[in-house]
Write a sequence for this structure.
């Protein structure tokens, strides 16, 4: 299955449509159990996700592949100690993938540390979590290794698809993971429940609302998956097992999605497609 389980809600009250807060213990167990039954084999977490690592370690998640992210702002001298602490919290001997949480933290010294951890067998693939296509260009220009990349993509944010970067990364042998498929849950919200802030973006949201009106918002959001064959895993986060069940059911019955159709929904407005720029209203 190309779906991976995101774990930010295991450690933080995260997401614009999240009214449940941090996932409770019994629900966390139910989510992991269902993920196994569905054939999901990958967890995505980060040192910055509160107690997510620790909770995964306590709840016997070692049978999943795990992709972790270093803390934002980490220095090269702290990498080895930081990774060792993550492994202890996660109750693992190895991380299958390790990403920089932001590209500006990269340095030759940092990657020397990562290479040593790979040599020791503690880290699998290394790479970066990026937010804009321009970051990848700078990254490769500086010659940093890129075995795994995580990037945002959804029906509104199609920058990496439109810029040709997915094909480029695939041709270079880089594994691609996509996050923000639901844009923090915004794409699943009923139009009348969206915060007032999004009134500014009435036109692109109206195009989305009017697209394939016979489909649920969940089916719409997931339909992008069929248009991105270059992507290995799509990271989805949930607060309840029934939400994961609904995602898996919709994922199993996706209608074909043509590129020219998708192009009509693409939006380059940073204030809409970048959650870091959202403000409460």
């Amino acid at each position: 299955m190309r779906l991976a389980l995101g774990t930010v809600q295991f450690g933080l009250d995260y997401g614009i449509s999240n009214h449940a807060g941090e996932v409770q213990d019994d629900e966390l167990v139910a989510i992991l159990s269902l993920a196994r039954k569905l054939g999901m084999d990958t967890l995505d977490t980060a040192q910055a996700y509160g107690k997510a690592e620790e909770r995964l370690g306590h709840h016997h998640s070692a049978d999943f592949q795990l992709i972790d992210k270093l803390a934002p702002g980490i220095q090269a001298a702290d990498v080895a100690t930081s990774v060792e602490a993550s492994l202890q919290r996660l109750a693992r001997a190895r991380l299958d993938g390790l990403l920089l949480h932001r590209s500006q933290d990269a340095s030759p010294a940092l990657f020397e540390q990562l290479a040593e951890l790979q040599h020791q067998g503690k880290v699998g693939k290394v790479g970066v979590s990026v937010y804009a296509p321009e970051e990848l260009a700078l990254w490769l220009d500086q010659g940093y290794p890129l075995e795994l990349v995580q990037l945002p993509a959804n029906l509104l944010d199609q920058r990496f698809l439109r810029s040709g970067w997915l094909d480029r990364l695939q041709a270079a042998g880089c594994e691609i993971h996509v996050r923000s498929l639901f844009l923090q849950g915004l794409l699943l919200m009923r139009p009348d429940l969206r915060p007032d802030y999004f009134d500014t973006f009435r036109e692109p949201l109206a195009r989305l609302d009017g697209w394939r009106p016979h489909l649920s918002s969940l089916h719409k959001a997931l339909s992008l998956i069929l248009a991105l064959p270059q992507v290995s895993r799509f990271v989805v986060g949930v607060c309840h097992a029934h939400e994961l069940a609904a995602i898996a059911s919709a994922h199993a019955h996706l209608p074909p999605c043509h590129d020219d159709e998708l192009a009509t929904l693409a939006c380059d407005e940073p204030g809409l497609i970048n959650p870091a720029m959202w403000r409460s209203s």
User: Anything to note?
Assistant: The beta strands are 3-6, 42-44, 65-69, 95-100, 123-129, 148-152, 175-179, 233-237. The longest strand covers residues 123-129. The mean pLDDT is 94.
